[in-house]
Amino acid sequence: MLCCPLCVDVAETYAEDRRRAYFHCPRCDLVFADPASHLDAAAERAEYDRHENDPADWRYRRFLNRLAAPLLDRLSPGMEGLDFGCGPGPALPVMLEEAGMHMSVYDPFYQPHRHVLDRRYDFVTCTETVEHFVDPNRDWTLLTTLLRPGGWLGIMTKLVISRDRFLRWHYKDDPTHVAFYSPATFAWLGAHFGLTTERVDQDVVLLRKPYQ
Q: CA dihedral defined by 141, 31, 18, 13, rounded to 10 degrees?
């Protein structure tokens, strides 16, 4: 028996390719890779070192603006934010600082300064990161506790559409991608953590913590 790493319900077999098997949770709709296939830390870091995310690259900025623009529409200059999983080239924090925000960054490999996780923020961004969560329950709990009341959580990740499309999906072929979300998964996350959810782009979801 294999349990869902997000909601701990019993998972079912979903798909298999040459590299690994995948499972599906009927409760929260998460699809996840077999934990036995996860890379060790050194191999995972080696994969990330191959990424080239230049903050000066206009094409990369345009990609990130799919999250930045709708998020900035909901923020005010001077607010404090955290980019969680910023990677080796934290371009989004630069863009948000240019818009008048005060940014902190965290990444377990490249910016492993855990003191930034002891604060609360007006918003947290997490672009192309949640699919790397080997322990989604732990990491989503952390993300929500980083928010002040009324705070925004901006997520960018490609979403599962169907099993047939998943079988042909290049996104699952990245060995560091281990957790795959659908619109139904985000609905479950919103209900579980008490957040409002709004899908503002094909791969972008904004979640908001209520005022207390």
A: 120
Look up tokens 């599962």; give the residue: 160
Query: Mean pLDDT over residues 19-44, rounded?
Result: 97
Cβ-Cβ contacts under 8 Å for 142 (sequence gap 6 or more): 117
User: What stretch of H or E contains 192?
Assistant: helix 183-193
In the block, residue with structure tokens 């990444």? 107
pLDDT tens digits along 176-207: 999 999 999 999 999 999 999 999 999 999 99
Domain boundaries, the chain: 12-208
Instruction: Decide if 179 contacts 5 (C-beta within 8 A).
Output: yes
- The whole-angstrom distance between residue 73's C-alpha and the CA centroid of its chain comes to 20
The Cα 192–Cα 29 span in angstroms is: 13
Give DSSP secondary structure letters for 68-82: HHHHHTT--TT-EEE
Give the single-character DSSP code of 95.
H
Q: Taking 90 as the threshold, does the pLDDT of residue 50 lie above it?
A: no
Question: In CATH, which superfamily holds the domain spanning 12-208?
Answer: Vaccinia Virus protein VP39 (3.40.50.150)
- Rounded to 5°, angle at Cα 71 from 65 and 77: 105
Angle at 159 between CA 153 and CA 160, to 5 degrees: 145
